């Protein structure tokens, strides 16, 4: 994968993560509970970011391991 393709993939991921609406949805019960209380309204924004963070980290770790394995495989296959 070239640097250009990697950049395009990362840019597309950034656009998807910054979208409003369904991109930020979470458990309906949790959202209702947070938005119906006065104290919860202030916490709702942080709660949304927390959910996105919890979803993104495993994919970032798996992607990093995959890229490392791919580079190691390519490096090994170049040596005769």
Structure description:
It is a single chain. The protein has one domain (3-78). The protein is built from three helices and no strands. With 80 residues, it is mostly helical. 82% of the residues lie in helices and 0% in strands.
Q: Could you outline the blueprint of secondary structure elements for this entry?
A:
Elements: H1 3-18, H2 28-36, H3 38-78
Uncertain segments: none
Distance between the termini: 22 Å
Mean pLDDT: 78
Biggest pleated sheet: none
Q: Structural class from helices and strands?
A: mainly alpha
Salient structural properties:
80 residues; mainly alpha; 3 helices
Quick recap of the structure?
This protein has 80 residues and is an all-alpha fold. It is built from 3 helices and no strands.
């Amino acid at each position: 994968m070239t640097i250009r393709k990697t950049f395009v993939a990362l840019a597309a991921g950034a656009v998807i993560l910054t979208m409003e609406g369904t991109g930020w949805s979470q458990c309906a019960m949790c959202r209702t509970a947070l938005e119906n209380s006065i104290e919860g309204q202030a916490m709702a924004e942080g709660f949304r970011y927390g959910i996105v963070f919890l979803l993104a980290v495993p994919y970032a770790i798996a992607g990093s391991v995959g890229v490392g394995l791919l580079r190691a495989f390519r490096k090994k296959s170049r040596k005769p």
